[in-house]
Amino acid sequence: MKKLILSSVMLLALVVGCTSQDSLKKTLSENPDILVDAIKANPDKIVEALNDAFKAAQGSQAKKREEAEKKALEESFENPLKPKIRSDEMIRGNKDGQILIVEYSDFECPFCGRAYSTVMELMEKYDGKVKFVYKHLPLSFHPNAMIASQYYEAIRLQSEKKAADFHDELYKNQRKLQGGEKYLKSLAKKVGADQSKIDKDIKSDKVNDRIKEDMAEAAKYGFQGTPGFLVNGVPVKGAYPLSHFENIVEELKKRGKINI
Questions:
Q1: pTM of the prediction?
Q2: Would you kindly state where each structural domain of the chain is located, as residue ranges?
Q3: Mean of the pLDDT values across residues 17-38?
Q4: Chain segment 81-100, per-residue pLDDT in tens
Q5: CATH 3.40.30.10 for the 91-254 domain, yes or no
Q6: Is 55 exposed, middle or buried (0-12, 13-18, 19+ CB in 10 A)?
Q7: How much is the pLDDT for 13?
Q8: Percent of the chain, pLDDT > 70?
Q9: Could you give the CA distance from residue 21 to residue 114 in angstroms, rounded to a whole number?
């Protein structure tokens, strides 16, 4: 703050008088009371000038971020990311669909709850054209996220249909996850899963290594928070509205990447 004030005062002095920056800096360093008195005499003007400087800096930074994001988006259309689709990957929708949506998500994240609704809308809007893959990115500060991912994978080993039902019910009733494993057990029972097999499988390498693979892939692609998506390899970081995904699909069509 002191540096910013000093810079502002120096700039003002240079504009209104023929004073070199070095000599002004020397004068203020040797006589700091000049600066103090100037601030005391013109507090409103100083604050106004600082606010204007902050706004200008914020606007400049926002513009740079926007330009960087546009550049990154452009590059992702031409050089899309390529997530690993395993041979036993659970794919919802049309397995031959041209629109591949991969989500890196956290069952306890409220933004992922919103994203769930968006994904369902996308699958309805582009019915028969979407293949959806759910991957895990349980965040450390969500106490029930990891165990929920383990339950999902354990249930998937029993039945993809039951795992899909578990996924949907959990996001529709996300607040109930605060009940921890007690709620997860009741939900597993509701979807018809075998709890004894779940108890065994959630401790297995097959379940836990798969979750670790998902988390590593998410980190590789720069997803630190949730949700994160890849739409035909184009990254989406955050719970964007349906229109954002529609725009990506339209751009893919314009570029001849898909034909729907």
A1: 0.76
A2: 2-78, 91-254
A3: 69
A4: 999 999 999 999 999 999 99
A5: yes
A6: exposed
A7: 45
A8: 87
A9: 54
